[in-house]
Amino acid sequence: MHIETDPKLDFKDVLIRPKRSTLSSRADVDVTRSFRFVHTGREWTGFPLIASNMDTVGTFSVARAFAPFGAMVALHKHYPAERLIDFLRSEIADNVFYSIGTTTEDLDKLALVRAQVPVGKICIDVANGYSEQFLQVVQRVRAENPDSVIMAGAIVTGEMAEALILAGADIVKVGIGSGSVCTTRDLTGVGYPQLSAVIECADAAHGLRGHVCSDGGCTVPGDVAKAFGGGADFVMLGGMLAGHDECEGRVRYEIRNGESVPVGLEFYGMSSDTAMNKYHGGVADYRAAEGKTVEVPYRGPVKATLQHIMGGLRSSMTYIGATRLKEVPKRTTFVLVGAQRNTVFDR
Q1: What residues contact residue 61 under an 8 Å CB cut-off, 6+ apart?
Q2: What is d(CA 347, CA 340) in angstroms, rounded to the nearest whole number?
Q3: Which of 98, 238, 241, 247 has the alpha carbon at shortest distance from 175?
């Protein structure tokens, strides 16, 4: 048994301290970034926000809505191969990740799709990225897809971020137990405060010219700004993007003024009873569900929420004098709130 005594932080534990700035308007800041990926040399430019590969959020419709803003979507892995092939032939294919797990079925399906269309970006997603098998799958997918940008996770520590990049990942997905419909921390006692995970993994990954994606823990636009301030190159959102017209899942309607109107949408974790029953015929005897099912309010088109997030980030950048998104980590000083509010952490 070992106890770490260094403070570990979630987004709610800090605020970003303002700094003097020459910026006069939110319109003066640029929230796009350009990346060159370590294993392929490929480049990408856009707004580095990614819709999570949950089946209610990681949809074709969300991808189409995000495309004009340069944001990305990790498509959920339950689309049939035929539909994925058709979609990957579209002009917005460069802004989507094809998501897989580590099963033979997942890998065979990827090979089937790849035989028909290029697969430029792949997300290898598992709940626990610390198994040797996971590293082996990352190595195999890299060997079989030398020209694809690969994102892999989830992990929360610097040494595993380094291992994944050396195994072939271009982007490491960071976050265990921090999602709004994830119950891993409650069920297993395992997890890591999200901001500290991002800071530590970013430090490790950037030393190898890799990148990190913060996945989970964001509930308001300010959390997205904190994730970028902590060194995240990309931020993945699930709950903040749920409940929109472009999402999938059951919709609850009410009769108002004689008309049926949507008032709520189902949203659930991909390790929940709901997802397990839907895709695997139930929760296996040897495991327990690690997610929950909730109803989120109906929110209309996702475009408005995306603009709200981008607006909050632009405003945050004006408070710290960051003209470009790339500058945000260098301009960020975190201040602890609560009992230790006078402590500051510079990035």
Answers
A1: 245, 246, 247, 248
A2: 18
A3: 238
Structure token pair of residue 334:
């975190």
Spatial neighbors of 225 by CB under 8 A, at least 6 apart, are: 16, 312, 313, 316, 317, 328
Residue 189, pLDDT > 90, answer no
**Three-class SS of residue 100?**
strand
B/e letters for 202-240, b = 16+ CB within 10 Å, e = fewer, are bebbbeeebbbbbbbbbeebbbbbbbbbbbbbbbbbbbb
**DSSP per-residue string spanning 151-202:** EEEEE-SHHHHHHHHHHT-SEEEE-SS-STTB-HHHHHS----HHHHHHHHH
Question: Catalytic amino acids?
Answer: 182
> What pLDDT, on a 0 to 100 scale, did the predictor assign at position 184?
75
- Exposure of 70 by Cβ count < 10 A (0-12 exposed, 13-18 middle, 19+ buried)? middle
Instruction: Read off the pTM.
Output: 0.93
Residue type, position 112, single letter? L
